[in-house]
Amino acid sequence: MAEVELSGVTKTYPGDIRAVDNISLTILDREFIVLVGPSGCGKSTTLRMIAGLEDITAGTIRIGDRVVNGVAPKDRDIAMVFQNYALYPHMTVYKNMAFGLLLRCRYGAFNNPLAFVLSHGRWKKARAERREIDRRVHEAAGILGIEDLLHRRPKALSGGQRQRVAVGRAIVRQPKAFLFDEPLSNLDAKLRIGMRAELKRLHRQVQTTTVYVTHDQEEAMTLGDRVVVMKDGNIHQTGTPYDVYERPANRFVAGFVGTPPMNFFEGRLVRDGDVLLFDEGDHRLAVSPVHHERLAAFVGQPITLGVRPEALSPGGVGVAPANAALNVQVSVVEPLGDRADIYCGTHRHPHIVSRVDGRIRVAEGQPAQLYVDLERAHFFEPGENGRNISSPAAP
Ligand code: ADP
Question: Which CATH architecture has domain 4-246?
Answer without folding.
Answer: 3-Layer(aba) Sandwich (3.40)
